[in-house]
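Task: sequence design from structure.
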């Protein structure tokens, strides 16, 4: 087993060119396109990964890591949204005057809205929102760290990443 790992490392080292390192780093950094292009954090890395995976196992490794991490972040975000959004709407609708809605009145009043009505559910939703903010900050810094590692020719595996691609 140890001999196969050394052979694999030698194969990876033989394929490490400046272009492969740059493409691997660009794979990680391309996930920031999510802020400009919808689903850019999936589409652009897939395109770059398909370009480089045939000629380098190093680029293939980093492409898999990038997509695994982005899909994991998506699942974690979805889970937090499933927790926070219904609680937010439940709290909002609990304080809405439905007689005004049913009678089609022009003014809506939120009744009995004070901070003493905050329940444990709202605290769970607030915790979910804070976890989401922490998740996005961690994603930002981890992507930069992974890009630096790739540019230096090192393999990097994201923490808390589910392995969808092996």
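Answer:
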């Amino acid at each position: 087993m140890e001999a196969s790992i050394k052979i694999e490392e030698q194969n990876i080292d033989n394929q490490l060119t400046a272009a492969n390192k740059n493409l691997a780093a660009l794979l990680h950094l391309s996930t920031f396109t999510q802020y400009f292009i919808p689903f850019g954090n999936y589409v652009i890395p897939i395109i770059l990964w398909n370009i480089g995976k045939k000629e380098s196992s190093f680029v293939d490794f980093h492409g898999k890591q990038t997509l695994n991490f982005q899909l994991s972040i998506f699942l974690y975000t979805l889970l937090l949204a499933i927790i926070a959004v219904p609680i937010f709407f439940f709290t909002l609708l609990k304080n809405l005057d439905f007689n005004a809605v049913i009678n089609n009145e022009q003014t809506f009043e939120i009744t009995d809205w004070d901070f003493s009505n905050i329940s444990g559910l709202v605290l769970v939703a607030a915790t979910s929102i804070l976890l989401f903010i922490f998740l996005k900050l961690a994603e930002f810094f981890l992507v930069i760290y992974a890009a630096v590692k790739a540019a230096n020719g090192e393999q990097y595996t994201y923490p808390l990443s589910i392995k969808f691609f092996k």
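The first helix runs from residue 2 to 14.
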